[in-house]
Amino acid sequence: MTGLADASVLAPPVGDPIVAVAHVTLRFGGVTSLADVSLQQERGEVLAVIGPNGAGKTSLFNCLTGVYTPQEGTIEFRPEGKSAVSVVGRRPSRVNRLGIARTFQASRLFNALTAFENVRVGVESRLHTGPAGAMLLLPRTRRENRRSRDRSEELLAFVGLTDRADELASALPYGDQRKLEIARALATGPELLLLDEPAAGTNLAEKDALQDVIHRVNTEMGVSVLLIEHDMRLVMAAAHRVAVLNFGRLIAMGTPAVVQHDEAVIEAYLGRTDAGTAPEGGADEAAGPEEGT
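and the corresponding structure tokens:
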């Protein structure tokens, strides 16, 4: 993996937010999942959202993608070269068409389809051919079919799965399934990619491969990445900045080097120590060697 400072050195310029969350509160009955959360992500940034289990991380993702509608606050997405658009109250399919794609904690692959077919499903969600064109194989349909095939092959190559294109998704090693999910999300052409615990259940070599994919998605494709992850080593190496949630509240935000030594963050993960001081390794060491819970 790359060192801690790598992501921060290459941080994108501020002042061009791609998404802005302001005073968002989400309740389920008497339970508050998000409490007055405000943050923004810069265009071209890899922003990680961390926190203990139940902190509200996935709830935030679900608000950003239209799965949940918060009772209070605003969420605006700013496509490049266009005016800001509110995502609150929009269906997930409409949010995706704005330019936001995501993966999930649990695999959502089509297990009975091949790796190639899974990616092509994502590509073809952006095609314009209607039923008549598909049945008659009109010239436009044939052109779109060629573009769809070529783009699917490009994305499989991008995540290193060319040799597994014809294998069923269910037969792939778990680390390759996670990369396939990223490829399928990229197939929809997003400007912002949300990754929900992409390294969960993977081994060290698979984590290294995922870090490389995330870095290349950001630097080579120019896609902003919002990342939920429990593996602190991956977070610290991949993210330009880190936002920390605890009990639905934003308690810290900054560069990885700053956040990992923040007293509020350390307390959220460990509880307050008797001396009121942080462990020598900060939050990174506090999380332990396998942060998969």
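(Above: one complete record from the training split.) The CA atoms of residues 103 and 181 lie 6 Å apart.
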